[in-house]
Amino acid sequence: MSAATPHVLVVDDEADLRELLVITLGRMKLKASAAESLSAAKAALSNGIFDLCLTDMNLGDGTGLDLLRYIAQHCPDMPTAVITAYGNMETATEAMKFGAYDFIAKPVALDRLRQLIEDGLGISEAEEYQEEADNLIGDAPSMQALKAQVRKLARSQAPIYISGESGSGKERVARLIHHLGPRREKPFVAVNCGAIPSELMESEFFGHRKGAFTGAVEDRKGLFREADGGTLFLDEVADLPLHMQVKLLRAIQEKSVRPVGEAREFPVNLRILCATHKDLAREMTEGRFRQDLFYRLNVIEAHVPPLRERQEDIPTLVEHILHRLGNAWETTPPPVSQGAMTALQQYPFPGNVRELENTLERAMTLCDGNAITEAHLSLQAPPTPLSEQPSSSGGTQGRPSHQPLEDYLQEIEKQELLRALDATHWNRTAAAKKLGMTFRSLRYRLKKLELDREESE
Questions:
Q1: What does the alpha-carbon distance between residue 109 and residue 107 come to, in Å, rounded to a whole number?
Q2: Alpha helices of 51-199 — where are they, by DSSP H?
Q3: What's the pLDDT at 424?
Q4: 315 φ, ψ to 5°?
């Protein structure tokens, strides 16, 4: 920070609110300066050094967005929060896109204001951890851009939508954003929205009181309250049913939750990060995802590139993964032959980094010589998309002529089961739901195809 006592700039054209904010900051043992307009704020920023700025959106001779533009250009390292009219989420969302780390609505609640200021000052304290953004492996241009974006997003409290294919590392990015930010000492709670049965979602998210329903044998806090002060990561958020999307939107906007069977609400202060391998904009367009929730979650988007678009990173990833596996197995990992490395770099990896990890783990298990060879990789030809398969009218069938129909159909079934299991991290309950079958039916098919293995539900 710039001084032993943090210095906060308050910008508001209402004298009463300005005075209230300055008094509150003084009670928090903070130094405060006030400006009544955009021009006065620019003058203050030009003549002094501040650790934090708190600005109203209406400034008489300009707007809070005008001030955010000025700060981005002249004081990019200073955290800024905005004060908005009650219920004006559009303005708050726009401000966060312009660089505000958070917002507070009028009338200003003092407890919420104190938390807002503590979060902002915590951003400066988290700067020393920024170098850890290099924890993302890879030097491809797309990864360099992602690393730079992660450093920037860690300073904000804005909701982040992390897009990318299954296995590309979306949760890793979410954890890193949390770890580099001011909430790093608080909980990071991750939940796979597609793995929770619909009838239990409200209880899982918001908690319940003992006896609220059959099976509620004790009080439960719920994921929102478990993540209080920290970050809640909603993985596969597109799988939320519509009725739960409504309740999620309210909890995010009101910053409070009401457990099932409870008469009162509990305030929560957390950051929301979400991800899905689906096209969330398309889900919204086709009516499966609420538009208001989409715009509330998708304030800023971070895209994780698929592995096939950064194949130059594969040698570095291979070295990192084998080193980690060697430590876990307490052995020296074997080197990778040139032929095997070439095969890895030419393979499209539809399962992305997760598939690369599984491939190398399998190769280390099979390797009984001095090096991992192409044979140890057991790379399979990726399935041809239906749109690219020859049509039957052209005289060419998808099934090879030498392969019996029963074997061909069984292979298709096996690939679909594996794809669903991989997408749900081998959670068989979630995979059965994804495939539209019962858990018992999935378990039978896995056993028939010799794919069954001990996995936690």
A1: 6
A2: 64-74, 89-97, 110-125, 141-154, 170-180
A3: 80
A4: -55, -40
Q: Which residues of the chain have pLDDT under 70?
A: 1-3, 86-87, 124-134, 381-407, 452-457
CATH hierarchy code of domain 136-303: 3.40.50.300
Residue carrying the six token digits 């491939």: 359
Instruction: Give me the torsion for CA of 246, 247, 248, 249, rounded to 10°.
Output: 50
Q: What does the alpha-carbon distance between residue 445 and residue 439 come to, in Å, rounded to a whole number?
A: 10
Q: What is the pLDDT of residue 455?
A: 43
CA 176, CA 149: separation in Å to the nearest integer?
Answer: 11
Q: Long-range contacts of range 358-362, CB-CB < 8 Å, 24 or more positions apart?
A: 360/318, 360/321, 360/322, 360/325, 361/325
Q: Is 134 exposed, middle or buried (0-12, 13-18, 19+ CB in 10 A)?
A: exposed
Q: Which tokens belong to 177?
A: 């954003």
Q: Map residue 229 onto helix, strand or coil.
A: coil
Q: State which amino acid sits at residue 87.
A: G
Cα separations (Å) of 102 from 24, 93, 210, 371? Answer: 18, 9, 35, 52
- Residue indicated by tokens 């039916």: 441
Q: For residue 53, what are the β-bridge partners?
A: 9, 80
CB-based contact 164:207 (threshold 8 Å): no
Q: How far apart are CA 64 and CA 120, in angstroms?
A: 17
* φ, ψ (nearest 5 deg) of residue 236: 50, 50
Backbone angles phi, psi at 426, to 5 degrees: 60, 30
CATH architecture of 7-126: 3-Layer(aba) Sandwich (3.40)
Token pair, residue 139, equals 């030097």
Instruction: Assess contact for 71 and 50: CB atoms under 8 A.
Output: no
pLDDT tens digit sequence for 407-444: 677 778 888 888 888 888 788 888 888 887 777 778 87
User: Tokens 């056993």 sit at which residue?
Assistant: 447
DSSP 8-state symbol, 260: B
Tokens of 56: 């109203």
The CATH label, of 1.20.58.1000, 1.10.8.60, 1.10.443.10, 3.40.50.10860, for the domain at 307-377 is: 1.10.8.60
